[in-house]
Amino acid sequence: MADPKGFMTTPRQDWPRRPVGERVRDWDEVYVPGALLPIISAQADRCMDCGVPFCHEACPLGNLIPEWNDLVSRDDWRAAAERLHATNNFPEFTGRLCPAPCEAGCVLAINQPAVTIKNVEVAIADRAWELGLAPPRPPDRLSGRTVAVVGSGPAGLAAAQQLTRAGHTVAVYEKDDRPGGLMRYGIPEFKMERRHLERRLDQMRAEGTRFRLSTAVGQDVGAAELRSRYDAVVIAAGATAWRELDVPGRELEGIWQAMEYLPLANRVCEGDLEESPLSAEGKHVVIVGGGDTGADCLGTAVRQRAASVTQLDIYGQPGADRDHEAEPWPTYPKIYRLSAAHEEADALGTAPSADADARLFAASTLHFTGDADGRVRELSLVEVDAGRREVPDSTRTLPADLVLLALGFSGPDRGDGLVDQLGLAMEPRGTIARDDGFATNVPGVFAAGDAARGASLIVWAIAEGRSVAAAVDRYLTGSSRLPAPIGPYDRPMVV
């Protein structure tokens, strides 16, 4: 460790965000450009180089966090980039999009603010690109084996890159017109600008990975035919089967799923549309669901100049500090967090009736009310207790011209025929079944990411992609030197 007293003398300092009034007028990332590098070496000095670094266990990728913290504190960006990329294919993605369970597991977090691990990570990744430290790494020779990867989200891309670098010929099949999965059309531009994604895709193409776009496996190409054309197939199609809200009035116009709304806004940023046909401009918006997808809808609606935006969370408002009995360190605690979108909504006063920022906590939707034309106009809700029982005399209504459902996902969408054409066995919860080697019941077909694990964090998706690549490499060649950071049944640390 470069400074043995750094954690005692240096306070935590996060990457500053741009002023709210400035950033809601554009779709650029919310952070102040160039403001991270001047502070990051001192922040890396706060790492205690613990004898047992629990940040390793909290991150499924097994990132070598104390090592690259020390290297950053010494301004050794080349070595830091090497150690970071040793465990993570896409650190500029995770450094921007991951909620950082590593920080919850930081030993310093027992009684102090954690090391800004996420900020150090993204600083290394961005610096690596600036200094030319992330060149393509094509294989020395080809194996003669072919692999199809279905899906180009973080799990599919990680699997494809690992397998390509191992010498296999890899083709990634993506149903959309551009690769990236939810990172392309689900994550708003203000959370991660697409130039970061394009840069990695260019790297992958230079290494030899091929992309087959606008090709839905099961429709545009038969799933069984695909299996017959390749030596192995990896299903990394994501968990895109969204959960519904079965309440009276759901059939009214103006009620949409979050993943019907967000992609259109992203297509405006891509230049495909001049404006979104589902714009929130001038509308009273209610978002049902308190998770990250709901927050993405919130930030998007604010930028589209909604008249008001309220986000409903069925859970009660969490406290500001960890409950050490219910969620002891180093588990990831449910505490009150203020995302950039919530900060914006709070500053702009978008939801006058909210409990905090734009959120109504402990709120359950009862029904929707529409006008004579069949369009939604109101949402009725009720307060619930910790057991989700209705609190008497707590019913209220909110104006609602646009309702967005952000209730999570249950598994892969069965509508494209992929699962049924291959005859894949499924788990009761709607995900693809697999054994302890990531293999499905169909020989040569493997499953990874949200399609098999269920909706999870980007770090788990990348870890799954790296691990399934090792399993496929072993299947094709009899052995593998590729890293496998997790098994298919590993889960985050919980009480």
UniProtKB/TrEMBL annotation:
Record Pfam families: Fer4_20, Pyr_redox_2
Annotated pathway: Amino-acid biosynthesis
SUPFAM superfamilies membership: alpha-helical ferredoxin, Nucleotide-binding domain
InterPro entries: 4Fe4S_Fe-S-bd (IPR017896), DPD_II (IPR028261), FAD/NAD-bd_sf (IPR036188), FAD/NAD-binding_dom (IPR023753), Glut_synth_ssu1 (IPR006005), Glutamate_Synthase (IPR051394), Helical_ferredxn (IPR009051)
Top-level lineage group: Bacteria
Keyword terms, alphabetized: Amino-acid biosynthesis, Glutamate biosynthesis, Oxidoreductase
Residue ranges occupied by any 4Fe-4S ferredoxin-type domain in the UniProt entry: 38-69
PANTHER family: GLUTAMATE SYNTHASE [NADPH] SMALL CHAIN (PTHR43100)
Protein name (database record): Glutamate synthase subunit beta
Organism lineage: Bacteria, Bacillati, Actinomycetota, Actinomycetes, Kitasatosporales
